[in-house]
């Protein structure tokens, strides 16, 4: 089988494994590797147009995986993950870790896994997410941090801790699967994976193949202290706090009133937009696309969790 290698040379760990080494490993695993250099995301359009029916191997971080996955929607090509980025939330969601050469070797007999994708209709068009869509505290922090700045988990967490202590909640008007879910919230995150952003694992029970989003909402009327939130984040127990509501849904509909929202690491309204009047249709809809992608993993992630 053909294996199209997408290699982000700007990712954190790609310096340790050249394109040639990864191609040799794919050949040893029984694949016919194909590699075309890409300099910008738009170059993926032409490269992936010729990958139909074969495996696509994405070597890079979460941004690389998202760029590839968006272009594989509606195709018959599965995707394999070689985590070489900063946060690697998607790889961590499936307990994928280790030397890329070992991960490729395991693809000789891959574990096939369905993967849901989130679709978001915004006033600026349609977008897709693999990790999370959200608004409130994190989106506002991302707006202050600057999504176009150089990625750094420490910088992101620093911005997070500076913003949280004095953050004021907003009133959001929204529905979940048609039921009213509005209220005053510090944060609303619609998650497809267990973690998002700078390794914020806020939904440990999220299942990216069950056709449902995990919804995390932090109520303003039962706000815990700053230290409690940070301790819970580190311990991956945020969802257990009294102020945190968790639920599942297939669709969220939101009335948008000019506040920032994020779709994975992309911030809306676009940072290049000048402030202006509300869009003619100030509505945002997020819905799950069940089993929109097939991932080929080096192992069964559930078996690793139980080991």
Can you describe this structure in just a few lines?
This protein has 307 residues and is of the alpha+beta class. The protein is 24% helix and 34% strand.
Notable characteristics:
307 residues, alpha+beta, Rossmann fold, Tumour Suppressor Smad4, 2 domains, 10-stranded mixed β-sheet, 7-stranded antiparallel β-sheet, 9 helices, globular
Please outline the helices and strands.
Blueprint: E1 2-7, H1 19-28, E2 32-35, H2 43-49, E3 55-60, H3 62-72, E4 79-83, H4 89-93, H5 100-106, E5 111-122, E6 125-129, E7 132-136, H6 137-145, H7 153-163, E8 170-172, E9 174-176, E10 179-180, E11 183-191, E12 195-196, E13 200-201, E14 213-219, H8 226-234, E15 244-249, E16 251-255, E17 261-263, E18 266-268, E19 283-297, H9 301-306
Parallel strand pairs: 1-2, 1-3, 3-4, 4-19
Antiparallel strand pairs: 5-6, 5-19, 7-11, 7-17, 8-11, 9-10, 9-16, 11-14, 12-13, 14-15, 16-19, 17-18
Helix pairs in contact: 1-5, 6-7
Description:
The protein is an alpha+beta fold and 307 residues long. It has 2 domains: 2-109, 3-Layer(aba) Sandwich (Rossmann fold); 119-290, Tumour Suppressor Smad4. Helices cover 24% and strands 34% of the residues. It has 9 helices and 19 strands. Strands 1, 2, 3, 4, 5, 6, 9, 10, 16 and 19 form a 10-stranded mixed β-sheet that branches. Strands 7, 8, 11, 14, 15, 17 and 18 form a 7-stranded antiparallel β-sheet that branches. A hairpin with a 2-residue loop joins strand 9 (174-176) and strand 10 (179-180). Helix 1 packs parallel to helix 5 (100-106) and helix 6 (137-145) packs across helix 7 (153-163).
């Amino acid at each position: 089988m053909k294996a199209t290698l997408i290699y982000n040379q700007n990712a954190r760990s790609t310096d340790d494994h050249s394109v040639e080494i990864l191609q040799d490993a794919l050949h040893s695993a029984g694949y016919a590797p194909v590699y075309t250099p890409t300099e910008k995301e738009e170059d993926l359009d032409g490269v992936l147009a010729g990958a139909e029916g074969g495996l696509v191997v994405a070597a890079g971080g979460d941004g690389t995986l998202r760029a590839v996955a968006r272009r594989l929607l509606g195709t018959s090509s599965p995707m394999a993950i070689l985590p070489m980025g900063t946060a690697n939330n998607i790889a961590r969601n499936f307990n994928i870790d280790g030397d890329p050469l070992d991960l490729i070797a395991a693809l000789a007999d891959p574990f096939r896994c369905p993967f849901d994708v989130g679709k978001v209709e915004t006033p600026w068009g349609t977008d897709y997410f693999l990790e999370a869509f959200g608004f409130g505290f994190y989106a506002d922090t991302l707006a202050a941090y600057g999504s176009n700045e150089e990625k750094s988990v420490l910088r992101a967490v620093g911005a997070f801790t500076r913003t949280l202590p004095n953050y004021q909640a907003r009133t959001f008007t929204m529905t979940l699967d048609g039921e009213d879910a509005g209220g005053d919230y510090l944060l609303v995150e619609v998650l497809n994976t267990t973690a998002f952003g700078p390794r914020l694992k806020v939904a440990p029970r999220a299942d990216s193949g069950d056709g449902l989003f995990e919804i995390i909402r932090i109520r303003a009327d039962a706000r815990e202290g700053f230290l409690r939130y940070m301790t819970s984040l580190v311990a991956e127990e945020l969802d257990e706090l009294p102020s945190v509501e968790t639920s599942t849904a297939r669709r969220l509909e939101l009335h948008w009133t000019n506040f920032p929202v994020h779709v994975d690491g992309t911030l809306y309204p676009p940072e290049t937009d000048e402030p202006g009047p509300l869009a003619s249709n100030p509505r945002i809809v997020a819905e799950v696309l069940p089993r929109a992608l097939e991932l080929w993993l080096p192992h069964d992630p559930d078996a690793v969790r139980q080991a």
